[in-house]
Amino acid sequence: LIVWNRGQTPAKQLLRMRVYRVPERRPAGFWWMALREVVVRGLLMSVLSAVTFGLGFVVGSLLVLSRNRQCLWDMIVSTVVVQEPH
Predict the structure, then answer these.
(1) HEC-encoded secondary structure of 44-73
(2) Rounded to two decimals, what is the model's pTM?
(3) Which of 50 and 65 is assigned the larger pLDDT?
(4) Per-residue exposure over 19-42, b if at least 16 CB sit within 10 Å of its own CB, e if not
């Protein structure tokens, strides 16, 4: 929650990655990160995993299959994860 204002999670902060809002071309703020991490990602993965174990893996693997390397939750809230320069 502390680093969500900067478009990061603790893991993304360690890996020097950031979540950007595609339409605005700037880092996602606290509320977009909350929507992405809790509402969309959490609920979507919970529902999909409850339906079938393999389907949750397929949805997560959309990262590899999509043109912009976005997961389904990134596509829903129009975000993209980028590697920041050192």
Answers:
(1) HHHHHHHHCHHHHHHHHCHHHHCCCCCCHH
(2) 0.55
(3) 50
(4) bbbeeeeebbeeebbebbbeebbe
